């Protein structure tokens, strides 16, 4: 049974990594594009080169992506405290049904 659990866990990790990476890249690219538009409409680009604007927007996008992954990590950490409680309730139900 341990081998099956290990296989399931490794599959979940691979799928989460495959889904999470493009999601974070999308968040980064979207927020970078929006930041460029905000800089241009806000008039904050006077005297800045195009390369400096792209660099500033990229840094902003990376910061937003890190913030999103920190939120996901904190939410996962908080939810992890309830896993053990749920599994104990399931085990108790199984024991009661067996009697």
What does this structure look like?
- The protein has 99 residues and is mainly alpha-helical.
- It has one domain (2-98).
- It has 3 helices and no strands.
- Helix 1 packs antiparallel against helix 2.
- The relative contact order is 0.08.
- The model has no long low-confidence stretch (mean pLDDT 87).
List the helices and strands and how they pair.
Layout: H1 2-42, H2 50-80, H3 83-98
Helix pairs in contact: 1-2
Low-confidence stretches: none
- Helical region count? 3
Could you give the count of β-strands? 0
Give the end-to-end Cα distance, rounded to a whole number of Å: 25 Å
Shape: elongated
Quick overview of this protein structure:
By secondary structure, this protein is mainly α.
Key structural traits:
99 residues, 89% helix
